[in-house]
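Re-run with default settings, no changes from the original entry. Doing this only to confirm the output is reproducible before filing.
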Amino acid sequence: MNAPSVIGNSFPPPALLPKVRSKAVLGAVRGMPCTLRIATFVPGHRCADPATVVPCHVGNLGKGMSTKVSDLSVAAGCMACHDLLDGRDSRRAWLIENYPAAVQHRALMGVLETQAMLLMRGALIIPDAEFY
């Protein structure tokens, strides 16, 4: 499926932007190091085994009832960080209470680091991109 066309400079509101689904992107995340690293904010806690790293969908843009955000918004996250991010670990409340900006910053940086690694693996392609 091709990307939706844009008429002039008119884009839909953020919630209506198209979502990208890519098995190549999701598959390429496996084997990457954890880019979230939020587990380290919890005293005595650290990232889990690198073998547990999976694509973690970050943010709420486009999230709705039984839908995930775009695969462009994934960060490589270990099981410990993924559980904290998604609220499966009860320490999330403590983390958000004590470090709300740091958690959001690490999530954003995790997505950006993951995108750079996806470029390196050829799972994300930007025409005419130059690497330095």
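The radius of gyration is 16 Å. The chain is about 35% helix and 5% strand.
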